[in-house]
Amino acid sequence: MFRKLSYVVFLVLILSSCTSTKQVLIPDWTSVPWGPFPLTCPDEIKNPVLKAADVSDRNAEFVADPFLFHENDLWYLFFEVYDRKTDQGDIGLASSTDGLNWVYERIVLDETFHLSYPYVFRYNGEYYMMPETHQLSDVRIYKAVHFPYAWKYQVTILNRRKYVDPSIFFYNNTWWLFVSDSNSTNLYLYYSHHLTRGWKEHPMSPIVKDDLSKARPGGRSLVYNENKIIRFAEDKLTGAGVRAFEVDLLTPTQYREHEIPESPVIGPGNPPIEWFVANMHQYAPWWTGNDWLVAFDGLGPDGQFGIGICISKKPEP
Fold this sequence. Notes:
By secondary structure, the chain is mainly beta. It has a single domain (30-312), classed as 5 Propeller (Tachylectin-2, Chain A), CATH 2.115.10. Helices cover 7% and strands 47% of the residues. The protein contains 1 helix and 22 strands. The chain has a 5-stranded antiparallel beta sheet with strand order 1-7-8-9-10, with no helix packed on it.
């Protein structure tokens, strides 16, 4: 009898362990007490860290839409590579051992349609990418078959509009999705209790209407300091940079937000570096364990669009 009970207890522990593992979401920054602003760019960072000229396997016109990911002591940077030969975007990859110095690797996702905004995350032990696929009028999810180099289409979760820059996050045991339209004037909100199915439009959606200055997502949505939510938005009206909004209320029936004092979090002269002068439209943070590493993009004085890296350190007491 004792042996049977021991065996049952053993099975329960194993199943509990498996269940716990399945709930792991990367990134999970709910325990990080401060957010990724303001930015500084130390001398050891040589911005831009990536340019079109670094892309060796495409006839690249520009690189943009960077998203960071850290795994097993390596840094990865996923981003759009716009190929002037095919007149469409593909998803490129660069890697780094320190997050500051980057080496371009190769194109990791190429379709017959335009791809951009490669929003990468890990859930249930699997790696997922939610890129922009507005030409198909849908939002789709890809799964890595060999992270970070090979990705396969898994499922379409929305198919009603020409969606741009889908930005997914997990909050209060629910998946949430900010996504704009091809005019960048409306911001829609969806939610689901399952990653790959059951997505519903929020009753208050669109939560931003007819406003080019704050409707289009501009980087990884951030949940930190327990349940503080920040969404980033491109200022498409002026091109002045990326604005940040804190979500005050988020339920399946209600939504409320306000712009934070640090907004805009990036723009011409912010941070004070000479490289970029206009058209910053991405703010993609990643917690290093000590501070924030932030990837962004922008247009330099030479007319070249590139990707930069800066740091947001712990605020002074």
